[in-house]
Amino acid sequence: MEPTIKVGVDSFYNYLKNNAAQAEPNKKNDLYYHVNVVAEAYTEGFSKGEKQGKEKLSDVLLEKLTDRIFDHLAQIYVASKAVSTYFQENGYKVDKLYINTSLNKPKVIISLPEEQLLDDTFVEFAYAKIYEVKCAFNTMFQNSLDLSLITSDNIDEELLISDGFGYIESF
Predict the structure, then answer these.
(1) Residue 8 has pLDDT above 60, yes or no
(2) Using CB atoms within 10 A as the burial measure, which of 5, 46, 150, 162 is most buried?
């Protein structure tokens, strides 16, 4: 840039218009950056940092949510397995376990021989354990677990699958 010697504001504005490209170099002299370069770098850095911060926060939240959902689903299985194992350890037969892993209203159906469901002693024994497990699940997840018993006779598994009972385990 060649020095321009003129007087007045209009002359200065004309000088800036004519020499705008030279007035905004990336680096001028040693360690001096034009204000536009500094402002642009700040804005770009802030935007990148904000974007990375949002992405990292989203990743962390998604990971925690995924872990929470996985824990929730795993506890549905653990609770159902605990009930069926408890029955078996006490000499009762369990035929199958049907699990609907809906997060809002998880459901478990345990199928048993009909004669067990007609036995009042078993029914009292079974529902005491079911109540205990449902309370523990509710305490952990602030969500209810629908745990039911059904006779193994005449179960239409296709209907259960269509109702969301996608996991079936035989004993």
Answers:
(1) no
(2) 150
- Do residues 16 and 9 touch, judged by C-beta distance below 8 A? no
What tokens were used for 117?
């469901």
- As a three-state string, the secondary structure of the chain is CCCCCCCCHHHHHHHHHHCHHHHCCCCECCCECCHHHHHHHHHHHHHHHHHHHHHHHHHHHHHHHHHHHHHHHHHHHHHHHHHHHHHHHCCCCCCEEEEECCCCCCEEEEEECHHHHCCHHHHHHHHHHHHHHHHHHHHHHCCCCEEEEEECCCCCHHHHHHCCCCEEEEC
CB atoms within 10 A of CB 6: 9
Kindly report, residue by residue over 77-112, the tens digit of the pLDDT. 888 899 999 999 999 999 999 988 887 788 999 999
| d(C-alpha 100, C-alpha 97), whole Å | 10
Q: What is the mean pLDDT of the chain?
A: 77
Are the beta carbons of 23 and 16 closer than 8 angstroms?
A: yes
